[in-house]
Amino acid sequence: MAQAGGWQAQLLDLRSLALPVYDGDLEAAEGVPAGALALQQAIAESTAVLVVTPEYNGFPTPLFVNAFDWLSRIQAADGHPAGLASTADKPVGLLSASPGPLGGLRAMNFVRQYLQMAFAMLVVPQQFALGRANEAFDAEGGLSDARAAQSVARVLDALARLVPAGR
Question: Does pTM surpass 0.70?
């Protein structure tokens, strides 16, 4: 869908980063893991970020929180506090999904606060939570409900409006 809207999208599955659970002693002994540096680089090289997360017990996945906890530990060389070198003022859109009727809304609200407060990211007000996600996709992997697809498109449009001209 992002590519259809003129975006070039790069999928980053946080599992591929193979990050250990954040531990200050581990960080002191071994430094920031390569996966966290890869996450920082991916965000830094992106014009905007679209976060898509499921909801587990009302929150985003521990995988998401852990990845951004590690990201927060990377020291900035440009005068920003740790963690903000690649994230400050970065436009972000939010989508969530859950088999429940709320569609991950509670997780998305947590992610919004976390990214705004801890990482100074510019999260667009438009967001979309896909309820009953286990029933929402057709055989090709597309959204089977046109209204859901329109809601995702609205988030992408809002995100596009935050991207500086010429980027």
Answer: yes
Neighbouring-strand partners of residue 91? 122
- Residue 64: name the closest of 24, 114, 99 by CA: 114
Q: Specify whether the CB–CB gap between 120 and 89 falls below 8 A.
A: yes
DSSP summary character for residue 59: B
DSSP state of 143: B
Contact 25, 69 (CB under 8 A): no
The position carrying tokens 């990211």 is 121
* Whether the predicted pLDDT of 64 surpasses 90: yes
Q: Domains in the chain, ordered, with CATH?
A: 14-162 (3.40.50.360)
Neighbouring C-beta atoms of residue 36, cutoff 10 Å: 25
Distance, in Å, from the CA atom of 115 to the CA atom of 165, rounded to the nearest integer, reads 23
Pairwise CA distance, residues 18 & 16, whole Å: 5
Terminal Cα-to-Cα distance of the chain (whole angstroms): 19
pLDDT at residue number 86:
82
pLDDT 10s digits, 69-79: 999 998 876 66
Q: Is 99 exposed, middle or buried (0-12, 13-18, 19+ CB in 10 A)?
A: middle
